[in-house]
Hints:
Elements: H1 9-21, H2 25-37, H3 43-53, H4 57-64, H5 70-76
Amino acid sequence: xxxxxxxxxxxxxxxxxxxxxxxxxxxxxxxxxxxxxxxxxxxxxxxxxxxxxxxxxxxxxxxxxxxxxxxxxxxxx
Length: 77
């Protein structure tokens, strides 16, 4: 979760890329959470895309547990 404390907007792109392209499901999950926590410009959109596109059923199940209110989601789960 340390990714969440990278606050530069350039870092947000790196974290978003990890959420989509990293081969490890645990890294993708941490990156999704981190991107939202750090205020990623498209955090909700990225999360919705991963819900439909991530190949790992555990990632998709985890996303379904997130609070539907994007202002609460990132640091409650």
